[in-house]
Amino acid sequence: MPSSEPVRLDRRTAIKWMLAASAGAALLPRLSRGADPVPGAAGYGTDPDLAKTYHPGDLWPLTFTVAQRRTAAALCDFLIPADDQSPGAASLGVQDLVDEWISAPYPQHAADRKTVVEGLAWLEAESQRRFGLAFPDTIHRQKAALGDDLCHEPDAKPEFKTAARFFQTFRDLAAGGFYTTPEGMKDLQYIGNVPLASFPETSPEILHRLGLV
């Protein structure tokens, strides 16, 4: 993970596809388990009204404190910063999506809640220990120094293993949130869900890549 500003755009380009792929792989099994009730719960209540606009906290109480949301927003922007093509993750409210996810009353979400809340606390404590600053107040180079210790759990030192697992969970959730926004899908140049007047044939080049010709 680079730690200097001049390579920031290169870093974003390099990790963009990795984040989207890892998010999809991580969220699919979680979504499939999303319908599992909390043990002992009487049920989920009624289905949401699809014609109604819901606001954060309408469906279930949220988890983040003001301080936790600030740290989560800073981490979102560190992972997916703004560039010439799209805004940063925090400006799109990805930290609020993470809060909604970990607050949902399902077993996997509860596990992620523990991981994320404890991980944010560790991140704040470690930032204070190293730099004497809250994580959101550190500069990019300092955030990158922390990220270097957490970005790949198999290579993390023993004392950073738990924090690295938090980093992976948060990264997956942030990427899943960002790349399912209109801005994130535009950043990926995703063109699905758009009505077409005609359906052009698949080019021979694409068919060849897919092994169909």
Question: Summed up, what is this model?
Answer:
With 213 residues, this protein is an all-alpha fold.
Keywords:
54% helix, disordered N terminus, 213 residues, mainly alpha
Strand fraction equals under 5%
Q: Strand tally, please?
A: 0
Structural class: mainly alpha
Low-confidence region ranges? 1-11, 28-41
Q: Helical segment tally?
A: 8
Mean pLDDT: 83
Largest β-sheet summary: none
List the helices and strands and how they pair.
Layout: H1 8-32, H2 66-79, H3 94-103, H4 107-131, H5 140-150, H6 161-178, H7 182-187, H8 204-209
Structure description:
This protein is an all-alpha fold and 213 residues long. 54% of the residues lie in helices and 0% in strands. The chain has eight helices and no strands. It has helices at 8-32, 66-79, 94-103, 107-131, 140-150, 161-178, 182-187, 204-209. Helix 1 (8-32) packs across helix 6, helix 3 (94-103) crosses helix 4 and helix 4 packs across helix 6. The chain is globular.
